[in-house]
Amino acid sequence: MAKEGFDKELQLLRLMFLTQGAYNRQQLAERLGISVHTLDKTVKKLREIQSTLYQHVTDREKKGCYAQLRYNYFAVTDNFLMFLYHAKSLKESEIERLYRILEQLSRQPLSIKELLDAFLTTPTGEVPDEKTLRQDLKYLEELSVIKKSGDTRPYVYQFDQELWSSLSDDELLDLHDFIDVMANTQLPAVPGYLLRHKVKRCLDSRLQREDWAVFLYKYHFVSRILDEQQALLLATAIAEQKKVKFCYFTPKRSKFYDSQNTNPAFLRDSTGKPQHVYPLRVVFDHQYGRWYLLAQESEKRPLRKYRVEGITQLAYGQQAAPDAFMRMQARVDERIQHSWLIDTGKPVTIRLRFFHPKGTPHSFIRERVEAQGQWGVITEETRESFLYEITVNSTLEITPWIRSFGSSCEVLEPLYLREQLQMEWKELLSYYESV
Amino acid sequence: MNLFDKIHNYQLITRLDEAGLYPVTSHEKAWLAKMLKHPAAQSFFEAETLSKLQQLTAAYAPTDERELFIEKAGTRTRNIWHPLVRKLRRIILGKNHIQLHAGTRSGRAYRRQRGVPYKLEYSLAKKEWYLIWLTFDSEQLLTTPLSLIRSVKEIYVEDAWYDSFLPVIESMLAARQQTAKIQVVRRYNLELQRILYAFSCFDKEVAYDPDTQEYTITLRFLQDEQEFILSRLRFLGLRVKVVENDQLKRRMAESAANALARYAPSAH
């Protein structure tokens, strides 16, 4: 069987989430580079996953939020894009088998023979062949979902419930809150969300209620989890110093997105470009909630920057020579040391004057500069203002941050940035002059 | 590691869920083990619980301690936890009222304010915890930073009494809802994706006009989120224009005029 990929689902979900209602079916399909028929099929599949997973979500409004992928702050406390990670398809018979194995092993430890016998008493009475059962047990054991015990054959298998059985309700509540906070604030998050879902359902049944979640996360880039699988695969390739191959779709094109279709009936010229590179660093940008890959084709070739969301059909390639890999990585670390994000342009020293807010003793401006100013330093302070200095690779990436302070920030140096900001404010004022 | 593992298949998970079975995978245990090493973990748990969890996950802890990713342009985190979170979350769980002493940013302090605690909110922009609660004195819905709360006392009440305030709080939230229409300036359409990412942390809808190729974003937000939205709008600069919401338009005009004034020759 061909390896099941989720590029198409992922891209559809991202496009629907980001553009929220902007496109009709035809336009969506066009931007994804798939037929309307394939689009409908994919949407139907995603809807089915959602409605199965969230059937216990009773509130009507909540259901609406899930179905429409709407970010409704007070109604939905889950990351509602998580359902994508439950998309792996499985045959009816395999679901039945895995379910029965876990169900039986949760009641009591059993050997393979006993397990086979136990299948006779299940509602279908269907007994899998021993070889299949052995494969299933091996898979579940590797996943550490079940445990094998005994020194000699026949081994006895048992469902691993330790986490649940050893924690009191109160402790489980603390665990839930911990996982919730960590999954929402740290990277990676997806394994945390997967675990949280289980802790939550377990608590629902232990506490006999479902309204106990009290945390809200404001200004959360929920869609960052869509690229986590790719980011983790790339991080693994980096740790193992392996080359990667992928097809890259640059996001700056007239088309919003594009995806490779695996169905030969819809095979079409792809606009994506095949890449074969050494992955060196995966960077997460907190300003937009996006992921980047920094890579090189070879030591002699220039550094390439990719947006992880444009990477499809990712596969591992050959092993790198350790010395060369380490050299490339050290070089890239050095080059991005002074990148606000990932810019490797010429370093420039920027000097800014920030103004304290008037009429309050609490300088939230200074607080923000200290929290977000990365490696920049505050050099002088008066009652009205303070100076901040930073050396960054070109002014391009830091400019939006500077602008976000509005009139609380003035660029002193370099002169060209000062002039640029002056021009921008002038033009921006013209947007609103009629107000 | 494959996050799309068949053990997570939605039909299988749902059936196991119905039977009260929650299989925890080695990936999840490894993730938990890694997170338990975070310095903040100690403040989440009683010492005994923490050591129990560490024991349960120790065998799965990743051996490679190097960071997987480089994070850029984040807000420095002072603390992802606040000692009051645990107490307040349990008061809310128990559906009880609170009496609290709190300071304010302006230096004034409030004593013995009674009210209904509603939710605990963590701002990923400010990296700070807040309590959303209804005060009895002023009948206002307040968002108070936990760092300003001096003390909290739990006041036991009947669940039904607690619940009776929820519709009041919800209607207050609904009354605070605002909308704004923001247009993506057409010459920046190539940057559409980035612009949409910048707004992806808000409740929004997007409209597209294929004739003019114009995108208009309708944002829904609460009154007190206005400052953050303004900073996002300034962040994007010329790429976006507020076309509906007079208050935002006026503030953007003021902001641009004041910023421009900083560069006037006579300023210094």
Automatic annotation (TrEMBL), chain A:
<dbReference type="InterPro" id="IPR051534">
    <property type="entry name" value="CBASS_pafABC_assoc_protein"/>
</dbReference>
<feature type="domain" description="WCX">
    <location>
        <begin position="347"/>
        <end position="429"/>
    </location>
</feature>
<dbReference type="InterPro" id="IPR057727">
    <property type="entry name" value="WCX_dom"/>
</dbReference>
<protein>
    <submittedName>
        <fullName>WYL domain-containing protein</fullName>
    </submittedName>
</protein>
<dbReference type="InterPro" id="IPR026881">
    <property type="entry name" value="WYL_dom"/>
</dbReference>
<feature type="domain" description="WYL">
    <location>
        <begin position="233"/>
        <end position="314"/>
    </location>
</feature>
<dbReference type="Pfam" id="PF25583">
    <property type="entry name" value="WCX"/>
</dbReference>
<dbReference type="Pfam" id="PF13280">
    <property type="entry name" value="WYL"/>
</dbReference>
From TrEMBL, chain B:
<protein>
    <submittedName>
        <fullName>WYL domain-containing protein</fullName>
    </submittedName>
</protein>
